[in-house]
């Protein structure tokens, strides 16, 4: 099977927010709505033992997506071919159940269209053989995109060699996006 | 005083439309289908890093930008500022058409005028000025220009030596220090191949002359296991990623560098062969300066424990390759140039100069040079400049001293000015003590005529007599031989408009060219070519360079050359002695400290500290540029304001809580901001970022956050003359409701 | 340019949960009484059915108007088993049909069926939230129980209001008294469930504890303490114990309704989710 996802190396994220802004420009997102954002973890610890790092967040492309099972219109699903969790804009009724149900706060609402939207790993770019824009522009090179089921992909190697971890696993969502811990 | 003598008739046949060349030239360069959309290769200029980009254009509109992977420096990556550039093109707050002042200067009352009328007014004034025999009274006051070849062509043809950029607001202390020491104004670390990187006041993850290029290479180095030590009073994003953060007392970096060198030399850890053959003044340097900077003594100044200094020295000197560098955090102090010399001397002791993983120099090679466009105007007869460079006030400075221009004009020393053209520069906002600058701008007796070429109604532009709306950097042409590739081979890039200048805006090259033709008197012969033809000649004139079509398509051209190292072995260094000058005769003769050393920050004296107990430092972030992004919605979303940052312990002693409104006050004034309590900062220091505190510029920018500049006194070291953005002492107190 | 919270479920959804509950509780309690009394209460039960249909109708309108794409509402019905929301929509329809059936034919089948669907409707409003694992504060079987309790309590309150407002309503004094006795028990039960609920949640997952914090001391504290606990439960309880006069009954019924709405509103709003590293807490609020 193919499961496209991101692996994000938190050691390499320099908190530059290029991913966030490039994503918003590319998908023409309205103000206040994000598909990807970068949280600042910290500063923690007392001076001079202060530490701080970035935590970029986007849709985890879950294997058991919490967002899908609450959709009353069958407008969102995990794509079998790519493993990407997609939204069919023409089917979405805009009830926002999925936004409420996603444990990662990964979904956003397009008020002009009245439908929900989210990161689908830049299908329009993948079609052209390019990487998602946030990956391509990531200044720290923290974001790696690929098929986490393909042992030859860089993503696969990082996941396994660097012991990437997943978040909120206890909720049973089986997220595909994983993180190399800082 | 000025008498009209020009030939009005010749000029009157000229219309502005003839000189608006960009429009027709843009579309041809789209790669792909115009309707379905295609790409245009260009280059970013949100900051000086000039990252390569590809703009996706559809139906005449830019949809997005992406990095250009062919760019050897930025390697296809772009930062948030770069990505958000699209929003500047379509910013609804842009100035739409030329404006003429109708009310008092600075009153904000304008009248719409046509380009023809504007250019007619400006050119007849300039023609009279030129004919009166005082062309030097025209001042081209620019900032990050990136087309100085063209703009100095104008001032030279006009006859004025007063063409300025903003280097002194940037890191001119470093430029001067490296020039004096190595004979090179912008040496670059080979940061990707270093195994130990020691940075002083340099946040490679926030800004820099090669921000995106250096940041990604530093991350690569770190993931290969390099050690990064960041010396900074504040936990910058770089310090946060460092193996070690040395939180130093502001302005004392040189003491630490001297302490480290003291250990390196006394322990014999330095590269003897290199020092013996390639430096002058080493023994005297050790004897007269280095000796007294024992770790204990250095520690008493910079507050870094003596053992730590020893440890740093050992690590630094025994890991190869290792490199040290310093930037604005050190440079923007009243001891900037001398302090940076101390940091640069660290590299000398390791002998890492022009080597893999070390400090690399240009040797006139990285800048491959563009073809000349004939005829070239002669240098102006008048050599005295309004920034007083080369006078006893600034005997050594090599780059413009921007903070001095308007004061010189006000004092009519060396002479008065008639017309100031502001371009990409905002003395009323971006300079220390902007009020002082503003008062001069405001006064028509001091500055009779101000033209501002600006896409936005920036703070300084509000004082203009005529505003000429320019397009943004994404609407213009530039051909640049960019000498700062971190691949260390020459490359050339071509910036192209990704859309024609929007609204009624024009690009400065077209404006100057039209003015030259309107002014006439021989000036027009230097401006036969429009921007495209001009740059085409420059590109085609590169020896063994690219074809025009090739660079138009690719955006960049990388010279087919191999990186060479230790090139000084061939012809020595570009210093008077041909060696690295630990002892600088020029400094000595001019009465400055001849050796790298620590001198205290002039304004940090004990008496002042009694009243103003905190050092104020200012910094930049990766999501905004100096003064031009506070109106960009998506950048404001990721950082929407700034704060007066204070250590929680210091705040507690002042009764200040997080989020309190506070005053930060220096000798020259006070500003009101919101306190942010954070352990990112030392107890004796207050940090305020740049980028915010606009009172004009646009609806998003206006009234958002604070600018530290109004309380920063305008001082410099008189050597490289970097404006001392970090040397002000302040006190902080709660605003009473 | 402050970051906005995700546009999620707000007061309209809380109102929907509330109205569906009241409608279910009102018809459910009278239908039960009617069944037990062998159909003697047909008139008041019919009038209540009309009102319940109205309330449920308004609730459904609110739900539909809250959709980003209201005209695509049919998709929810066409995919009945896709999600709790669709299941609920069908339960609501069946409940409405049962009430129409009662209005048309009366009789024990429809009254008993009405009771069953009333409980299902009220319970579903709790399950709708309960299945959302991301928000642990809702993940308890006690939530449907609490919502059912509140539904019947508020339903009885509506009946009481009707009884005192409509002369023709025709609810005998004995039944009326019985209902207020039941309501008293429901209020006590509700207080107890809320107390237990918050205690358990406070000791479970971190987000649930944050929710409790929000209710007791945080953003929702005013509505929780003022609207739900004090106005909605404690005062009606005291009033009911103090006297059983018509005016007090009416007043306490209105307060119970305020309490019922506050319950849906605060419990909905307090459903926060776990925070990712560095994520600001506001991001997790509804
Ligand atoms: S992260 Fe959220 S939106 Fe993305 S697949 Fe998982 S549950 Fe769905
Ligand atoms: S672009 Fe990369 S380095 Fe920058 S914030 Fe995003 S993940 Fe981090
Ligand atoms: S670093 Fe960012 S702003 Fe600077 S040139 Fe590169 S993309 Fe543009």
Secondary structure layout plus pairing:
The complex is a heterotrimer of chains A (182), B (737) and C (286).
Chain A: E1 4-9, H1 18-26, E2 37-44, E3 51-57, H2 66-69, E4 76-78, E5 85-87, H3 97-101, E6 108-110, E7 115-117, H4 123-127, H5 133-137, E8 143-147, H6 154-161, E9 178-180
Chain B: H1 8-12, H2 22-26, E1 31-33, E2 37-43, E3 52-58, E4 61-67, H3 80-83, H4 85-89, E5 99-101, E6 110-112, H5 115-131, E7 138-142, H6 148-158, E8 163-164, H7 172-182, E9 188-189, E10 196-200, H8 211-223, E11 227-231, H9 237-241, E12 244-246, H10 253-266, H11 272-278, E13 279-280, H12 282-289, H13 295-302, H14 306-318, E14 322-326, H15 328-331, H16 336-350, E15 359-360, H17 402-411, E16 419-423, H18 427-430, H19 434-442, E17 449-453, E18 466-468, E19 478-482, E20 491-495, H20 508-519, H21 531-540, H22 548-554, E21 556-558, H23 568-571, E22 580-581, H24 585-589, H25 606-611, E23 614-619, H26 633-638, E24 644-646, H27 648-653, E25 661-666, E26 669-677, E27 685-689, E28 728-734
Parallel strand pairs in B: 7-8, 7-16, 10-11, 10-14, 11-12, 13-22, 16-17, 17-18, 23-27, 24-26
Antiparallel strand pairs in B: 1-2, 2-3, 3-4, 5-6, 5-18, 9-15, 19-20, 20-21, 23-28, 25-26, 25-28
Helix pairs in contact in B: 5-20, 6-20, 7-16, 10-13, 10-14, 10-16, 13-14, 17-19
Chain C: H1 11-36, H2 42-66, H3 74-78, H4 84-105, H5 108-130, H6 142-165, H7 173-202, H8 206-216, H9 221-242, H10 246-269
Helix pairs in contact in C: 1-2, 1-5, 1-6, 1-10, 2-4, 4-5, 5-6, 6-7, 6-10, 7-8, 7-9, 9-10
The structure holds iron/sulfur cluster (3 copies).
């Amino acid at each position: 099977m193919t499961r496209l996802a991101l692996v994000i190396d938190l050691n390499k994220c320099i908190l530059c927010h290029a991913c966030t802004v490039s994503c918003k420009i590319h998908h023409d997102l309205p103000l206040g709505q994000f598909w990807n954002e970068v949280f600042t973890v910290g500063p923690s610890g007392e001076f001079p033992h202060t530490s701080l790092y970035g935590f970029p967040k986007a849709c985890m492309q879950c294997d058991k997506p919490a967002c899908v099972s609450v959709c009353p219109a069958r407008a969102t699903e995990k794509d079998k071919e790519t493993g990407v969790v997609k939204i069919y804009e023409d089917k979405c009724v805009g009830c926002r159940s999925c936004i409420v149900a996603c444990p990662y706060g990964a979904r956003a609402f397009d008020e002009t269209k009245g439908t929900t939207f989210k990161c689908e790993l830049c299908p329009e770019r993948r079609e052209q053989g390019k990487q998602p824009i946030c990956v391509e522009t990531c200044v720290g090179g923290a974001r790696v995109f690929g098929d986490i089921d393909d042992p030859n992909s860089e993503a696969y190697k990082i996941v396994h060699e660097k012991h990437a971890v997943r978040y909120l696993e206890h909720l049973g969502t089986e997220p595909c996006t994983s993180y190399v811990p800082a | 005083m000025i008498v009209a003598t020009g030939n009005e008739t010749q000029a009157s046949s000229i219309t502005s439309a003839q000189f608006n060349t960009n429009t027709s030239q843009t579309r041809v360069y789209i790669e792909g289908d115009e309707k379905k959309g295609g790409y245009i290769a260009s280059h970013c200029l949100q900051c000086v890093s000039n990252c390569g980009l590809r703009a996706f254009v559809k139906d005449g509109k830019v949809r997005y930008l992406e990095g250009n992977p062919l760019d050897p420096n930025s390697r296809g990556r772009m930062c948030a500022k770069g990505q958000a550039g699209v929003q500047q093109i379509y910013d609804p707050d842009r100035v739409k058409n030329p404006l003429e002042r109708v009310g008092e200067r600075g009153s904000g009352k304008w009248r719409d005028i046509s380009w023809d009328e504007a250019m007619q007014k400006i050119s007849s004034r300039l023609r009279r000025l030129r004919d009166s025999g005082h062309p030097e009274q025209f001042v081209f006051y620019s900032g990050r220009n990136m087309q100085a070849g063209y703009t100095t062509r104008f001032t030279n043809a006009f006859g004025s030596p007063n063409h300025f950029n903003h280097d002194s607001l940037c890191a001119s202390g470093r430029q001067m220090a490296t020039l004096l020491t190595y004979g090179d104004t912008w040496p670059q670390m080979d940061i990707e191949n270093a195994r130990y990187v020691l940075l002083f006041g340099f946040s490679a993850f926030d800004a820099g002359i090669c921000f995106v290029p250096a940041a990604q290479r530093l991350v690569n180095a770190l993931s290969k296991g390099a050690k990064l030590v960041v010396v900074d009073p504040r936990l910058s994003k770089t310090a946060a990623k460092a193996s070690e953060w040395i939180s130093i007392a502001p302005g004392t970096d040189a003491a630490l560098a001297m302490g480290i060198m003291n250990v390196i030399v006394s322990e014999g850890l330095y590269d003897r062969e290199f020092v013996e053959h390639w430096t002058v003044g080493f023994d005297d340097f050790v004897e007269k300066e280095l000796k007294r900077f024992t770790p204990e003594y250095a520690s008493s100044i910079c507050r870094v424990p003596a053992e730590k200094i020893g440890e740093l020295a050992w690590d630094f000197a025994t890991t190869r390759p290792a490199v040290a560098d310093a930037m604005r955090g050190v440079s923007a102090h009243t001891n900037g140039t001398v302090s940076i010399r101390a940091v640069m001397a660290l590299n000398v002791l390791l002998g890492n100069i022009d080597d893999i993983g070390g400090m690399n120099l240009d040797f006139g090679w990285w800048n491959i040079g563009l073809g000349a466009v004939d005829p070239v105007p002669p240098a102006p007869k008048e050599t005295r400049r309004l920034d007083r460079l080369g006078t006893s006030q600034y005997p050594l400075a090599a780059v413009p001293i921007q903070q001095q221009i308007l004061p010189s004009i006000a004092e009519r020393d060396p002479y008065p000015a008639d017309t100031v053209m502001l371009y990409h520069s905002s003395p009323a906002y971006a300079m220390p003590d902007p009020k002082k600058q503003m008062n001069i701008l405001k006064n028509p007796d001091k500055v009779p005529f101000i033209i501002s070429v600006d896409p936005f109604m920036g703070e300084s532009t509000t004082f203009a007599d005529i505003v000429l709306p320019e397009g943004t950097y994404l609407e213009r042409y530039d051909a640049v031989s960019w000498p700062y590739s971190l691949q260390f081979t020459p490359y050339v890039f071509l910036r192209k408009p990704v859309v024609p200048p929007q609204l009624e805006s024009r690009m400065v090259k077209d404006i100057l060219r039209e003015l030259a033709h309107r002014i006439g008197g021989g000036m027009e012969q230097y401006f036969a070519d429009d921007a495209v033809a001009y740059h085409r000649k420059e590109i085609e004139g590169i020896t063994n360079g690219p074809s025009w079509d090739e660079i138009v398509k690719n955006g960049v051209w990388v010279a087919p050359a191999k990186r060479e190292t230790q090139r000084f072995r061939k012809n020595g260094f570009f210093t008077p002695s041909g060696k690295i000058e630990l002892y600088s005769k020029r400094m000595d003769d001019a009465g400055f400290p001849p050796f790298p050393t620590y001198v205290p920050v002039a304004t940090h004296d004990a008496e002042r500290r009694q009243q103003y107990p905190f050092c104020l430092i200012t910094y930049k972030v990766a999501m905004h540029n100096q003064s031009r992004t506070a109106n960009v919605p998506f950048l404001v979303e990721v950082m929407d304001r700034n704060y007066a940052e204070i250590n929680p312990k210091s705040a507690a002693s002042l009764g200040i809580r997080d989020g309190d409104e506070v005053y930060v006050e220096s000798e020259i004034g006070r500003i009101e901001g919101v306190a942010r309590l954070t352990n990112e900062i030392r107890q004796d220091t207050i940090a305020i970022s740049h980028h915010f505190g606009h009172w004009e510029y646009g609806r998003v920018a206006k009234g958002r956050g604070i600018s530290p500049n109004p309380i920063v006194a305008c001082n410099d070291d008189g050597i490289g003359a970097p404006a001392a953005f970090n040397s002000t002492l302040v006190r902080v107190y709660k605003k009473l409701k | 340019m402050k970051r906005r919270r995700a546009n999620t479920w707000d007061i309209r959804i809380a109102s929907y949960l509330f109205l569906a509950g009241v409608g279910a509780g009102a018809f459910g309690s009278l239908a039960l009484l009617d069944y037990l009394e062998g159909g003697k209460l047909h008139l008041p039960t019919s009038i209540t059915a009309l009102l319940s249909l109205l309330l449920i109708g308004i609730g459904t309108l609110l739900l539909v108007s809250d959709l980003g794409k209201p005209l695509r509402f049919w998709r929810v019905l066409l995919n009945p088993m896709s999600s709790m929301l669709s299941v609920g929509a069908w339960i609501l329809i069946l409940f409405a049909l049962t009430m129409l059936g009662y209005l048309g034919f009366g009789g024990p089948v429809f009254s008993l069926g009405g009771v069953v669907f009333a409980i299902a409707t009220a319970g579903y409003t709790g399950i709708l939230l309960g299945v959302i694992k991301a928000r642990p504060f809702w993940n308890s079987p006690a939530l449907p129980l609490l919502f059912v309790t509140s539904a019947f309590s508020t339903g009885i309150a509506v009946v009481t209001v009707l009884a005192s407002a409509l002369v023709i309503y025709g609810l005998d004094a004995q039944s009326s008294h019985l209902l207020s006795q039941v309501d008293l028990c429901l209020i006590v039960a509700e207080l107890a469930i809320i107390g237990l609920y918050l205690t358990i949640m406070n000791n479970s997952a971190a987000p649930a504890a944050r929710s409790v914090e929000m209710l007791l001391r945080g953003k929702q504290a005013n509505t929780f303490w003022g609207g739900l606990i004090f106005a909605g439960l404690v005062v009606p309880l005291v009033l009911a114990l103090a006297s059983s006069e018509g005016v007090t009954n009416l007043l306490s019924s209105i307060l119970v309704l305020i309490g019922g709405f506050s319950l849906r509103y605060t419990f909905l709003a307090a459903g926060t989710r776990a925070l990712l590293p560095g994520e600001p807490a506001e991001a997790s609020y509804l």
